[in-house]
Specification:
Length: 192
């Protein structure tokens, strides 16, 4: 008896993995399938406090929204997409749906990641993918190396070297995001 086998596309494999691992974040970065387990409490609190800070700064009044875990369609390879921890997007971002609950990069003003077990993705492929997508501001709360990195203003698909911030310092959110705001490194790293 013959058995027909179907070779899965990367996109189909990502869909299967998402269903098999509830709560995990499945992404395709530079043609590589990744799955990240749910965040720990400090990670989640960092994002909550980040949202509150942007709310107090008037991000909605500036014509933007902040969202967590919304997909970003990437221009790097045909199936590439990321699901950033936190994003500042245009208020009408839902009009820019591409597919698979992912939105076009042009509606993203800022993307932030708080590192977890996949810290090397946040510091490597995502830097490259977000720059190529033209994301104006990328903030990484790098818990592995105990610092916050600020990437901004990509040129020809690449970010200049990041600005580095240590504990006890504040990260100034670039004016291009639409609000004036300084973020505490300690809060970004610990959620405190």
């Amino acid at each position: 008896m013959a058995v027909l086998q179907h070779e899965l596309t990367l996109s189909e494999a990502a869909d299967l993995l998402s269903r098999a691992l509830p709560g995990h974040r499945v992404e395709i970065l530079q043609g590589r399938l990744t799955a990240t387990p749910p965040p720990d409490g400090s990670h989640a609190l960092s994002l909550t406090k980040l949202g509150r800070a942007f709310d107090r700064a008037g991000i909605v009044e500036a014509g933007h929204e902040y969202v967590q875990g919304v997909g970003l369609w990437l221009p790097t390879l045909p199936d590439d997409y990321a699901i950033p921890d936190f994003s500042i997007v245009d208020e009408d971002f839902r009009d820019a749906l591409v597919q698979k609950n992912c939105y076009a990069p042009n509606v993203f003003r800022l993307v932030a990641e708080v590192t977890s077990s996949n810290w090397s993705d946040d510091l490597g492929p995502k830097v490259e993918c977000y720059a190529e997508a033209g994301i104006p501001v990328y903030i990484v709360a790098d818990r592995k190396h105990d610092e916050v990195l600020l990437y901004r203003d990509p040129v020809e698909g690449k970010y200049p070297s990041p600005e580095r911030y240590k504990r006890g310092q504040n990260v100034p959110v670039p004016e291009s995001v639409g609000v004036v705001l300084d973020l505490s490194v300690d809060t970004l790293l610990d959620g405190d």
